[in-house]
Write a structure and sequence with these properties.
Number of domains: 2
Strand order of the largest sheet: 1-4-6-5
Radius of gyration: 20 Å
Number of helices: 14
Largest sheet: 4 strands, mixed
Strand content: 5-15%
Order of helices and strands: EHHHHEEHHHEEEHHHHHHH
Oligomer: single chain
Structural class: alpha/beta
Helix content: 40-55%
């Protein structure tokens, strides 16, 4: 989210990792599959360690101890080459298969030798990922001996709290989302890894090695109902990946028909902002009427002010039944084109 966030997290189409045929490694705390979308909240010491290193790499403060600082330096260099959170997709899509630095090195060795970066350059992906795995292997014993137990305790406690709040209402929450955005109602388990720290925006969704969305959400970046919204926002990215047709798909098609293509910022920002609006509305309607939207609290709406104002005025009317989906999308696209032409 909130890629990211996301958020986003996580906030344009996630980058896919290569497809592999071997069986996936056992998942930590996996939940049984049920009909329709279901959140699978996971706690993994290695995933927490990994994002702790990435958080330290993004921080202006000098990391300690020396082993963490060294790993952070490697991650910082790789982040610059990858071009930000979504560039990490090929690497982070493998995390569900990884339990420790040894398995990280094994999985990273299967990455493509090179990667065409978002800036158009070529990166030695495999070699750089293996360099990171080596640095993580040096820091891992320190993390596990000094921090892992307390951090796992905090993460498990957070998951337990979420079981009594967000998970207890997830059927209603997903019904709200599926009805509004017309995602597929097929059975889908959405992995959501909880971590204590992550670089801005504090949450991201990547594609795993089978092309499915896997979410990573930091507790440090989100508190209270903002955490609920962040998780739902990242789940929207996973649903977007899994659903060949949806309101978001229609919206992108209408933008393209109006002359706004994938290379233009509006093509990304308009559907992504709608995800923010819908996730916040779902939290208010299903979980907490007093909820303040992440877009307001964290300043995302201010970054896309004109688009956010359009959607905040229009989408609640669609949810109230005052407008059909087609009319709402057509009005939105016409307004976005007018804004672009007025620039």
């Amino acid at each position: 989210m909130i890629a990211a966030f996301l958020l986003v997290s996580s906030f344009v189409a996630p980058v896919s990792g290569p497809v592999r045929s071997q069986a996936p490694a056992p998942q930590v705390d996996a939940e049984p599959t049920t009909a329709g979308p279901k959140l699978d909240l996971r706690v993994s010491p290695f995933v927490d360690l990994y994002f702790m290193v990435r958080h330290a790499a993004a921080s202006k403060e000098q990391a300690t101890p020396a082993e963490l600082a060294a790993a952070a330096a490697v991650a910082r260099e790789l982040d610059a080459a990858l071009g930000g959170p979504l560039g990490w997709g090929p690497i982070e899509g493998l995390l569900p298969r990884i339990d420790d630095a040894v398995s990280a090195k094994r999985e990273f060795a299967t990455l493509p030798a090179t990667l065409r970066t978002r800036s158009g350059g070529t990166l030695e992906l495999r070699a750089n990922a293996l360099k990171l795995a080596d640095a993580l292997a040096v820091y891992e014993p320190v993390y596990r001996s000094t921090l892992a137990a307390e951090r796992a305790k905090a993460l498990v406690a957070a998951r337990r709290e979420l079981e009594g709040t967000l998970l207890a209402k997830q059927t209603e929450a997903f019904e709200s989302i599926l009805g509004a955005l017309e995602f597929s109602r097929a059975e889908l388990v959405i992995p959501v890894y909880l971590v204590l720290d992550a670089p801005e925006p504090g949450a991201v969704t990547q594609r795993d090695d089978a092309g499915r969305g896997v979410c990573f959400v930091s507790l440090g970046a989100h508190a209270g109902t903002l955490l609920h919204e962040s998780i739902l926002h990242e789940a929207l990215h996973a649903l977007d990946v899994a659903s060949p047709t949806s309101v978001l798909t229609k919206l992108r098609a209408k933008l393209e028909a109006a002359g706004i293509g994938p290379r233009e910022r509006e093509w990304r920002d308009v559907p992504h902002t709608l995800m923010f609006v819908q996730a916040a509305e779902t939290v208010r309607r299903v979980l907490a009427p007093e909820h303040r939207a992440y877009g307001d609290v964290a300043g995302y709406y201010a970054k896309v002010r004109s688009i956010a104002d359009l959607e905040l005025a229009l989408w609640p009317r669609r949810l109230a039944g005052e407008l059909s989906t087609e009319v709402a999308l057509d009005e939105l696209v016409r307004a976005v084109v007018a804004l672009r032409d007025a620039r």
